[in-house]
What we know:
alpha/beta, TIM Barrel, two-stranded antiparallel sheet, 11 helices, disordered C terminus
Amino acid sequence: xxxxxxxxxxxxxxxxxxxxxxxxxxxxxxxxxxxxxxxxxxxxxxxxxxxxxxxxxxxxxxxxxxxxxxxxxxxxxxxxxxxxxxxxxxxxxxxxxxxxxxxxxxxxxxxxxxxxxxxxxxxxxxxxxxxxxxxxxxxxxxxxxxxxxxxxxxxxxxxxxxxxxxxxxxxxxxxxxxxxxxxxxxxxxxxxxxxxxxxxxxxxxxxxxxxxxxxxxxxxxxxxxxxxxxxxxxxxxxxxxxxxxxxxxxxxxxxxxxxxxxxxxxxxxxxxxxxxxxxxxxxxxxxxxxxxxx
Length: 294
C-alpha cells in the first residue's frame, strides 16, 4: 500500500491543504479543517521565505515529535507554464526542489510530467532514493485532451517512475466531466494511483465527486486564503461535502464505504454536492437532469 507519510492512499478520500506560506498556524488550521496532508508550494512563497534553509526549518518544526500537527508534506515548485509562479530558470527551479528533498524531511514530491527530461529524471531518482512517492502531474487550464491522449499521458507517467499520476484539466461540457470520472474509475480499478481534478465552473464538482471513483487526492485552499487553481474549494468545504456524500451513500444503500472505488451515480452524487454547498444545488441538479442521456 502506497503512503504519503503515514496516510494510506486508495482507501478513503485524502484531502490536501495547499500552503503558500511557511506558517505553523496555517498548517494547524488546515489540519483542524480536515486536511490529511499539506502541499507546500515553493513557487508561491514570499521572497523572504523562498530559501532551502527556511523550508528546512519549517518542515523540522512541523515534524517535531512534540508538535501536535505532524502532517505529511508534499513539496512542489510549480512552473509558470502549468499554473505556477516560479520566476527563475528551469535549472534553478529543479535545483531548489532537489536541495529541499536532500535536506528537508518531506513525504512526497510533485513534478510536472512535461518538465525537461534531465531535471525531471533528477527529481524522480532523488525521490526514489529517499523512498518517497513521486507525483507526476499534468495541467491543462484551457480544456481537456482526448480520452486517448489522457490515457497515454497517464500510462507514460507510470512508465517513467511516477508513483501517482495527477491529471488536472478543464472540462467544457458535462460529457467531459463524465469521461474524466469514467477514466478515474477504470484506472484506479486496475490498482493504479490516479489523481483526477476538474478545474473551472463545469469541472468544479469533480473535486468532490472524483474521490468516490478512486481519485487518490483532492486539493483545497486553507480557510481565509484564496484558491490557487480555478474552481478550488477550501479544505473545510471539501471535507464537509465528502462526509455528506459518504453519509448519503450509506443511508440509501445500508452499506459502509470500505474505499472510494464504490460506484455511486454521478447524477446523485453531484446533487448531494450541490445541497451541501448551498445555492449551487439548483444549478447542478438542473444541469444533470437535462443532460442525463449524454
